[in-house]
Amino acid sequence: MYQYTDTDQTLVDERVAQFRRQTEQFLKGELSEDHYRALRLRNGVYIQTHAPLLRVAGPYGLLNSKQVRKLAHIARFYDKKYCHFTTRQNIQFNWPKLETIPDILAELASVQMHSIQTSGNCMRNTTTDHLAGVCVDEIEDPRPYCEIIRQWTTLHPEFDYLPRKFKIAVSGALHDRAATQFHDIGLHLVKNAEGEVGFKVIVGGGLGRTPIIGQVIKPYLEKKHLLSYLEAILRIYNLYGRRDNKYKARIKILVKESSLAKFSALVDKEWSHLKDNNELSSERIAAMCAQFSAPAYDDGAVDDQSFAQQQAADQAFATWVKHNTANHKVSGYRAAFVSLKAPDSPPGDMTDDQLDAVADLADTYSFGEIRVTHRQNLILADIKQADLYSLWQKLAELKLATPNIGTATDMICCPGLDFCSLANAGSIGIAKEINEALDDMDYIHDIGDLKINMSGCMNGCAHQSVGHIGILGVDKKGTEWYQLTLGGSSENNAAIGERLGPAVAKDQITQAIVTILDVYIKQRLEEESFLDMVNRVGITPFKEQVYATH
Amino acid sequence: MQLIKDQQIIDNTWQFIADTDELKSGDISMPLARWQGEKPQLLAHDGKLGVRISSADSVDELADDLEKLQLIELDFPDFADGRLFSQAWLLRGRYDYHGEIRAIGHFIPDQVFYLARVGVNAFSPETSEELPEIINKLKDFTVNYQSSIN
Fold it and tell me: Which residues constitute the domain of residue B58?
């Protein structure tokens, strides 16, 4: 993975010093609330219901064991012994004291981490495929380009006060695991007719209040033009994006209101001035690719016989392998998910001890690297098949081996009313209730591939509009209600879920989910997934049952 | 009133004339509309000329006039409105403007490092207490990741 140069380290250290000065000025009353707010947000500091929240950047989801131990240390000494992983592959601390945050940032800087631009109306952490570099369907590893974009976006002097936040995702595989069609800019590594690899550029996608599927603005962009083209899009957005209404300020609204053709013409005109002056050299690309070279895989890993025997002998292990591991491009290796969706723990949360233990497991089994997925789990990406059994046993002891990846209880869930000052309704409690109702793993495995996403408000942090089942918390005269949608997807077949009907009361929501799943079980065709069935039959059969019983 | 230009605290020698103000002698700046409306008379003026633009103005409209202008003022309506960062970049990077670009209005000292990078070389803060702070904050970073004007 990428190692900081002196320039990277100096920049991050100087940013910590800058934020320390700003925080001191604020605490002495020398900086207004309004000004400090904009500055702290650009350092990942929100003021939430109970305390400040600090969002730390997980650059395209990639962490090393030393960094994860540092997160454990921060959780232990500055917070309440846990942290939370987010859908942007970031890490959140819910309880730090404001005056200690500069110290936390200095701790992070000591392990090449920061919280720069993890909130605020600026360019955010670039995200990517959690299986980048190891998956079997990859055209090219997207991570070198993510790092190039990370550097370009970080402290960009022109684009730090945009109309609204701006998110970029990169996918290098055939299967889009990075929700690129729902980003302000989505980039796909693709091959052209000559077999050269470049980028398909998608613009104007987004979730939140107005979910919109992005549109292809450039079917093929040569790699050397990556940064000049991004600069052209950002300049047009910065100049023409709406600033009169924050709900209409994302680039998706600009693209929609002006039409893709007109927006694209503006970008092309701007780009025509830039493209020849600011090329990304093949040397720079090659040097960056070298930072992400494959680890020293063991050629003999594939000869192992124990893996098959252990699966045959231990059904629980076989089940975990089936659901919580993924194919690897190197024979004899698999990628193993660390499930952060145990039934009795808030989705995406991890304790300090779990963090330390997973760092140790990464060192022992997976070249010291850990990845964060956008569905709020972790991955140890390079596990020899012979090591999977002992890894599984150790993860199980840590309560990190619930075999539910990609199933009904692998929910994406925002912090909701319990922590967030924006939320209208609770989400963690509902997730727990649904988990308790679906406590039979055989039933969950029978339902199979299902993405339930639940957000406590319209801002949609948990991407409810692209959940196969989406749950949105709404406030009705001071009580918590939940709006259901069916049929959303953030993958290649991108779709926004269709609203099922009127919102459901808090004490009815779990029953509504159970009813929806019962309809699926009864009416599905053989081998038909939940999403496929919704696409085949529409929402009516589900609607009839959910509203018949309420 | 003092301001910072090229990292030095200096006295302001410019006067602003609004759309309906009488012309004054000496160095004057004015709104874009007045410049566009009275260009022939203004070119006969005995002092230097400047134009004050706000976020919604387009510097493209000044492209052919820049040689005649010694000052462009970027008037921040609100520090969160980042359009003027791009306008400054365009003046330097696209139109090769070499005169003074001055930030005025509601920018904040914590933005001056970025503003300097996109080509702003003068800063007129709302209070003189901010002058030393601005000089310091121009030095917030010694490194950067991307090319810009500076």
Answer: 2-137
- Residues with Cβ < 8 Å from B7, sequence gap 6 or more? B135, B138
Does residue B149 lie within any of the structural domains?
no
Whether the CB-CB separation of A405 and A324 falls below 8 Å is answered with yes
- In angstroms, rounded to a whole number, what is the distance separating the alpha carbons of residues B42 and A550? 76
For the question of whether the overall pTM of this predicted structure is more than 0.90, the answer is yes
A521: Cβ–Cβ under 8 A, 6 or more apart, which residues? A446, A447
Fold (topology level) of A412-548: Sulfite Reductase Hemoprotein; domain 1 (3.30.413)
The candidate with the shortest Cα–Cα distance to A116, out of A154, A163, A150, A81, is A154
- Domain A6-109: assigned CATH number: 3.90.480.20
One-letter amino acid of A328: H
Q: Does residue B145 lie in a domain region? A: no
- Nearest residue of B to residue A32 by CA position? B108
- What ipTM describes this predicted complex? 0.98
pLDDT along chain A (550 residues), means of 10: 97 98 95 95 86 92 98 97 93 94 98 98 96 97 98 98 98 96 98 97 94 97 98 98 96 97 98 94 97 96 97 98 98 98 91 98 98 96 98 98 96 83 84 90 94 91 94 92 96 95 94 96 96 97 87
Chain A: give the shortest CA distance to residue B120, in Å.
Answer: 11
With H, G, I as helix, E, B as strand and everything else as coil, classify residue A524. Answer: coil
B127 touches chain A (CB under 8 A): no
A158 — contact with chain B (CB < 8 Å)?
A: yes
Select the residue of A151, A157, A239 nearest B83 (Cβ to Cβ).
A239
Contact predicate A260/A215, CB 8 Å: yes
Condensed to tens digits (0 to 9), the pLDDT of residues B46-103 reads 999 999 999 999 999 999 999 999 999 999 999 999 999 999 999 999 999 999 999 9
Between positions 222 and 261 of A, the ones with CB within 8 A of B are 227, 235, 238-239, 243
CATH 3.30.450.30 fits A134-290, yes or no: no
Q: Check if CATH label 3.90.480.20 holds for domain A299-397.
A: yes
Contacts of A163 in chain B (CB under 8 A): 82
